């Protein structure tokens, strides 16, 4: 028990140095996806259809488009001519963003809600979890030598997501 406490006390704190050393495209990507993750969670947990929801939704969608676009300039996992399967997610995000806005403007709120939920959970949460894999920049930023804590953080994120999904399913009907 004492050994674990000593090991925990010697852990390095989180550092942004790997991110500052990263290419500009990675820095832009992180600078837009981080507020998109926080804002998206706020939007998902609060009343829909209000003027505030519409304003924050426009800001969130712009952040998502910039995030997806910036990913095309990131080639750290180069499988096919500098691109990887994660770039397919960026294409899906761009098309999904367009379709989510179009669905909302048409009044097809169910489709809008499904697309936005997919963008958030697939494009931010799932893709974000993959950035925490050892060897990736965000893993070095968040864990800096604390390999054992990755599983704990993943479990915590999973629990938060389950809470968001359960709360949104029990929520009030969408106002127009």
From TrEMBL:
<feature type="transmembrane region" description="Helical">
    <location>
        <begin position="57"/>
        <end position="74"/>
    </location>
</feature>
<feature type="transmembrane region" description="Helical">
    <location>
        <begin position="145"/>
        <end position="166"/>
    </location>
</feature>
<dbReference type="Pfam" id="PF10067">
    <property type="entry name" value="DUF2306"/>
</dbReference>
<keyword id="KW-0812">Transmembrane</keyword>
<keyword id="KW-1133">Transmembrane helix</keyword>
<feature type="transmembrane region" description="Helical">
    <location>
        <begin position="80"/>
        <end position="103"/>
    </location>
</feature>
<dbReference type="InterPro" id="IPR018750">
    <property type="entry name" value="DUF2306_membrane"/>
</dbReference>
<protein>
    <submittedName>
        <fullName>DUF2306 domain-containing protein</fullName>
    </submittedName>
</protein>
<feature type="transmembrane region" description="Helical">
    <location>
        <begin position="115"/>
        <end position="133"/>
    </location>
</feature>
<feature type="transmembrane region" description="Helical">
    <location>
        <begin position="24"/>
        <end position="45"/>
    </location>
</feature>
<keyword id="KW-0472">Membrane</keyword>
């Amino acid at each position: 028990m004492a050994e674990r406490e000593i090991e925990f006390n010697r852990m390095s704190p989180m550092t942004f140095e790997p991110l500052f050393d990263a290419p500009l495209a990675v820095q832009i990507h992180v600078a837009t996806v981080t507020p998109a993750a926080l804002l998206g969670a706020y939007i998902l947990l609060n009343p829909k259809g209000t003027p505030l929801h519409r304003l924050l939704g426009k800001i969130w969608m712009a952040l998502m488009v910039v995030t997806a676009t910036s990913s095309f300039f990131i080639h750290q996992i180069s499988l096919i001519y500098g691109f990887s399967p994660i770039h397919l997610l960026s294409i899906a995000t761009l098309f999904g963003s367009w379709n989510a806005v179009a669905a909302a403007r048409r009044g097809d709120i169910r489709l809008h809600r499904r697309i936005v939920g997919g963008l958030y959970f697939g494009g931010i949460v799932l893709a974000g979890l993959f950035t925490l894999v050892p060897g990736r920049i965000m893993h070095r930023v968040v864990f800096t030598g604390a390999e054992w804590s990755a599983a704990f953080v993943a479990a915590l994120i999973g629990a938060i997501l389950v809470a968001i999904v359960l709360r949104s399913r029990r929520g009030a009907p969408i106002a127009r």
